[in-house]
Design goal:
Blueprint: E1 4-10, H1 17-29, E2 35-41, H2 48-58, E3 62-67, H3 72-83, E4 88-91, H4 103-111, E5 117-125, H5 130-146, E6 159-162, H6 163-171, H7 179-186, E7 190-197, H8 210-224, H9 227-256, H10 265-298, E8 305-309
Parallel strand pairs: 1-2, 1-4, 2-3, 5-7
Antiparallel strand pairs: 3-8, 4-6, 5-6
Length: about 325
């Protein structure tokens, strides 16, 4: 067991990796010599794997998990957690938007023993376009308003987890590994470390474009709250009440001759379209929950490792996704 494991999910990051590796190695020298850096890689189209292998020649504490197919960032993170041996584990991206300079402060707080989880919190989002910022704001607001667990606002997967937290996370059987929410599920005392998020050093993010971010946010709401289902029920009662009120209004209007039905055909048409739209929205929400149940009952592995480079084979017995 080492003191510190760094888990880095990567996909087509050959340009960002060299400066990241140098930056992390420089920071870790000031923190501890007892560490490992685990790169968790979906099959890439560029030379990402070659960059990691070359870096490992100079630094044997660098390790590589190569997955059999693209499992996405959540699966890659879970693979790294499963193979890590650190008494503390830090999950971070390699694009330098999760700045390595924050690591010493995270480790210092953890070493004090009061907190089992240390979460860096963004105080600015440089490099993000206004649409992405808006989506992030709405997603965090919606999740925190509906979720049954507390998820800190403006905090990504970048975090330090004590070994006890990691072990509890790995006991969970959910196939949709939403780390931000599952950290809240297992509990443990946490603290926030503010930092300024910088633009990517090279290229663009490969894991989650804007639509991917929206999907992850929606997945978080579905996974940790039944609020949308309750919202459907409330909306149904409201619409039913409005329909009854409208019916009485039409009857009274007909009796008093102030309402002509021929003139209301357009209104009726609009109401029908509105109600049908509400039905489709409700069916979509219900379908999302049913789909989630379907995915969980299949119990497919979160990840499958094709090759593990740099790991002691004796420690890999029994490890599965």
């Amino acid at each position: 067991m080492v003191e510190l494991s760094i888990i880095v999910p990567i996909y087509n990051e050959e340009e960002a990796l060299p400066p990241f590796i140098e930056a992390v190695k420089g920071v870790l020298k000031k923190v501890t010599e007892d560490y490992e850096i685990i790169f968790c890689m979906d099959p890439c189209k560029d030379k990402t794997e070659e960059v990691v292998i070359k870096a490992r020649q100079d630094e044997p504490r660098i390790k590589l998990l190569k997955f059999s197919r693209r499992f996405g960032q959540p699966g890659a993170i879970w693979g790294g957690l499963s193979y890590s041996t650190g008494r503390a584990v830090i999950v971070m991206d390699c694009d330098m938007q999760d700045p390595p300079e924050v690591i010493p402060e995270m480790v210092r707080i953890w070493r004090q023993g009061e907190y089992k989880v240390v979460i860096p919190q963004r105080v600015s989002r440089e490099g993000d376009n206004p649409v992405k910022r808006l989506v992030a704001y709405v997603a965090y607001w919606l999740i925190n308003k509906t979720s049954t667990v507390e998820i800190p606002r403006n905090a990504g997967d970048f975090r330090l987890l004590d070994r006890k937290v990691v072990e509890e996370l790995l006991k969970l059987k959910e196939t949709n590994a939403f780390l931000k929410g599952l950290t809240g599920v297992v509990g443990y005392k946490y603290t926030l470390v503010p930092f300024a998020r910088k633009p990517r050093i090279e290229g663009e993010g490969k894991y989650f474009p804007l639509t991917g971010g929206i999907f992850i946010g929606f997945n978080g709401v579905i996974a940790f709250s039944g609020a949308l289902l309750r919202l459907m029920t409330i909306a149904g009662f409201i619409l039913a009440a409005l329909a009854i009120f409208g019916a009485f209004t039409i009857i009274i209007g007909k009796i008093t001759d102030w309402y002509q039905f021929e003139a209301g055909l357009a209104t009726i048409g609009v109401l029908i379209v509105f109600l049908v739209g509400c039905q489709f929205v409700g069916m979509g929400i219900l379908g999302a929950y049913i789909g989630r149940i379907y995915e969980e009952t299949k119990q497919r592995p979160i990840f499958i490792v094709e090759e593990a480079i740099g790991f002691d084979s004796r420690k890999l017995n029994g490890l599965t996704g």
